[in-house]
């Protein structure tokens, strides 16, 4: 009887350790996948993959208009309280940000843009994996990043900077339409806010 | 009974076996000039709290518990630390641009406010890493102050 007990104890111990181990492996694989993705995103950069992520980004073929479109899609998902869609679009935006072509800008502008992109990418990535309240927190800083980006890159379409004084001590966002549709509150307070500035 | 025994032995061998797989340890003697504490004039009480509650996963130097010597615990910790440092590394604070500092501070404030950090799985064992309401307010207040000085 004693023996059975001992054997069972050992088995349980070993089982726990193996399960945890396989969990860990699964996670690792997932990470690898991600790494692979980022690498692929930059495939058209300059061919070498061993440099730092920072250095690799931003030699792509995407212009700022694509980024704006991704941003607006994401904003619209938040307006309709669609967490799953916002996750998806956050990931899309993160990918596009990594491919932004900044080669035609001056050195000073390039370094500013790199900084903006790096920050924005982080927020977009968080949006791709968070519940909606978190997505909105990140969307606030993301909006600031995108606004600063537009200040450098300019925009082909007319943009409206809108502002809701109630969310987190006052928060702004960009829209292509004059009408207020609040991405921070969604259906809860869809019309809170006003146009603060027009950007051409 | 025989089959049980065989399974038990196999599992035991596996458990012993994984103990020999080496892990990378997150340890460094040097505190770089870019460290949060060196760049900012952090009051002592906050300094200690950050060191105990945050630095194990958010810096280049972890003070490991004894059970880190046992697999698969060590792997679990290694993963956590890697993720934590990717998100925020206090040792590299001054390498972040103002824009990114601002983002990091906002996240620090939010996550402490919401009780998401320090992680519950960490405070479960590291009881001294728990933040009381007063300590939370103290740290949040301080982080807000730094954030305001950036803008």
Please provide a written account of the structure.
Chain B: This is Haem-binding domain-containing protein. Chain B: Residues 12-147 form the Haem-binding domain. Chain B: InterPro entries: Haem-bd. The complex is a heterodimer of chains A (200) and B (151). Chain A is mainly alpha-helical. Chain A has 2 domains: 2-40; 60-199, no CATH class. Chain A is 60% helix and 8% strand. Chain A has helices at residues 2-41, 53-56, 64-79, 83-98, 107-127, 132-153; strands spanning 159-164, 171-175, 194-199. Chain A has a 3-stranded antiparallel beta sheet with strand order 2-1-3. Chain B is an all-alpha fold. Chain B has one domain (25-150). Chain B is 56% helix and 0% strand. Chain B has helices at 2-18, 36-39, 44-53, 73-87, 98-113, 120-123, 133-150. In chain B, helix 5 (98-113) runs antiparallel to helix 7. Chain B is elongated. Chains A and B meet through helix 1, helix 5 and helix 6 of A and helix 1, helix 4 and helix 5 of B.
Helix count of chain B equals 7
Backbone shape of chain B: elongated
Return the structural class of chain B.
Answer: mainly alpha
Q: How many helical stretches of chain A?
A: 6
Poorly predicted regions of chain A are 22-57
- Rg of chain A, nearest Å: 22 Å
Protein name (chain B): Haem-binding domain-containing protein
Domain Haem-binding (chain B): 12-147
Pfam families (chain B): Haem_bd
Organism (chain B): Seonamhaeicola algicola
Task: Write a concise synopsis of the structure shown.
Chain B: Residues 12-147 form the Haem-binding domain. Chain A is mainly α. Chain A is 60% helix and 8% strand.
What are the key terms here?
heterodimer; A: 200 residues; mainly alpha; three-stranded antiparallel sheet; 3 strands; 60% helix; globular; B: 151 residues; 7 helices; 56% helix
Secondary-structure blueprint of this entry?
The complex is a heterodimer of chains A (200) and B (151).
Chain A: H1 2-41, H2 53-56, H3 64-79, H4 83-98, H5 107-127, H6 132-153, E1 159-164, E2 171-175, E3 194-199
Helix pairs in contact in A: 3-4, 3-6, 4-5, 5-6
Chain B: H1 2-18, H2 36-39, H3 44-53, H4 73-87, H5 98-113, H6 120-123, H7 133-150
Helix pairs in contact in B: 5-7
